[in-house]
C-alpha cells in the first residue's frame, strides 16, 4: 500500500510538472496565432492583446498578396519537394548499394562516408566549392551541398541489411534486374524508413537559412526563412532589405507586429500539417539501424 501510494504521488507530481512545462511552451505559439488574427485597429489601441475581441484576416491577406513573400514561399516549396525527392533517391540508393555484400566498392565508399562524418571542411572551402561549380545565386546551391547525410546513409544501410536476401533472389529468378528489385521490392517494404527520413529532409530544406545567406544574393531566390528573418528585423529596427521594407510600408493600416506573427504562422503551418500524417512512421523510422537484443 505504501509503495502504491508513493507511486501515485510521484506520478501525480510528474504529471503536474509536465503539464506546466507543456503549457509554458504552448502559450507563446498560442499568443502568436491570436495576434496574427487580431484586428489591426484593436491591436494598436490595446496595450496587451490576449484574446482579441475583433478577429481579422487582414494580415494574412496582406502577406499572401505580397510578391516578395509569395516568391520566397514558392522557393521554399521547391526546396522541400524537389530537394527531399533528390535526397531520398540518393540516400536510399547509396545505402542499398552499401548494404549488398556483392558490391565491390563498398569498403572504399564507406571509408569516404565515415571520413566526412569525422572531418568537416568548414564554411570557406564549402563556399569556394559552390562558387567554382557555378552554383552561386542558383536554387541548386541550396540542394546539392546538403543532398545527403552520412549519418542517414549509415542508418538506412543498417535498415536494408535487415531485409532478407531471399526477396531479391526470388525477384531475380522472375526476371527482375537490380534496379527493378530496388524499385519493386526494396522500396515498398521500406516505406516506414523512407517516410521518416523524408520528413527529416523536408524539415531541413523548409528551414533552409544559413546556406541561403551564404550563397544567395538575389531577392527572387531567397527562401521564406530568410525573408521572414529580414521581415522581423525590418519591423523591429527599421533597418534591412529594401524589398522587405517596401512590403512593410506598403500597407499603413497594418502594424508590423501582426504582419510578423502572420508570417511566422504561415512559415510553420505546412510542416505542422504534414507531420501528423507521417507520425505513425516515426516509431519505426527512429528505430532504423537499432541493435536487436
Automatic annotation (TrEMBL):
Keywords: Cell membrane, Membrane, Transmembrane, Transmembrane helix, Transport. Coiled coil: none annotated. It is found in: Cell membrane. It comes from the Bacteria. The keyword Aminoacyl-tRNA synthetase does not apply. InterPro entries: MetI-like, MetI-like_sf. The keyword Transmembrane applies. Residues 73-278 form the ABC transmembrane type-1 domain. The chain crosses the membrane at residues 12-34, 75-96, 108-128, 140-160, 181-206, 259-278. It is a multi-pass membrane protein. Belongs to the binding-protein-dependent transport system permease family. This is Carbohydrate ABC transporter permease. It comes from Paenibacillus baimaensis. The lineage of its organism: Bacteria, Bacillati, Bacillota, Bacilli, Bacillales.
Amino acid at each position: 500500500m505504501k509503495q502504491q501510494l508513493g507511486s501515485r504521488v510521484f506520478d501525480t507530481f510528474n504529471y503536474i510538472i509536465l503539464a506546466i512545462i507543456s503549457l509554458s511552451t504552448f502559450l507563446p505559439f498560442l499568443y502568436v496565432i491570436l495576434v496574427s488574427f487580431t484586428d489591426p485597429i484593436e491591436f494598436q489601441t490595446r496595450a496587451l492583446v490576449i484574446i482579441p475581441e475583433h478577429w481579422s484576416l487582414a494580415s494574412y491577406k496582406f502577406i499572401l498578396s505580397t510578391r516578395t513573400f509569395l516568391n520566397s514561399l514558392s522557393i521554399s516549396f521547391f526546396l522541400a519537394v524537389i530537394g527531399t525527392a533528390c535526397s531520398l533517391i540518393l540516400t536510399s540508393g547509396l545505402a542499398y548499394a552499401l548494404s549488398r555484400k556483392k558490391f565491390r566498392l563498398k569498403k572504399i565508399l564507406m571509408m569516404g562516408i565515415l571520413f566526412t562524418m569525422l572531418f568537416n571542411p568548414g564554411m570557406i572551402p564549402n563556399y569556394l566549392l559552390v562558387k567554382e561549380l557555378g552554383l552561386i545565386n542558383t536554387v541548386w546551391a541550396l540542394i546539392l551541398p546538403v543532398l545527403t547525410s552520412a549519418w542517414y546513409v549509415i542508418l538506412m544501410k543498417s535498415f536494408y541489411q535487415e531485409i532478407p536476401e531471399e526477396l531479391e533472389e526470388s525477384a531475380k529468378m522472375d526476371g527482375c534486374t537490380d534496379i527493378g528489385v530496388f524499385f519493386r521490392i526494396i522500396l515498398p517494404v521500406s516505406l516506414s524508413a523512407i517516410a521518416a527520413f523524408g520528413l527529416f529532409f523536408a524539415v531541413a530544406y523548409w528551414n533552409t537559412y544559413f546556406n541561403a545567406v551564404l550563397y544567395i544574393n538575389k531577392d527572387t531566390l531567397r527562401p521564406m526563412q530568410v525573408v521572414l528573418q529580414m521581415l522581423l528585423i525590418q519591423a523591429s529596427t527599421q533597418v534591412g532589405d529594401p524589398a522587405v521594407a517596401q512590403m512593410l510600408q506598403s500597407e499603413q493600416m497594418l502594424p508590423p507586429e501582426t504582419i510578423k506573427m502572420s508570417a511566422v504562422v504561415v512559415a510553420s503551418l505546412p510542416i505542422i500539417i504534414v507531420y501528423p500524417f507521417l507520425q505513425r512512421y516515426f516509431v519505426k523510422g527512429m528505430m532504423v539501424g537499432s541493435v536487436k537484443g
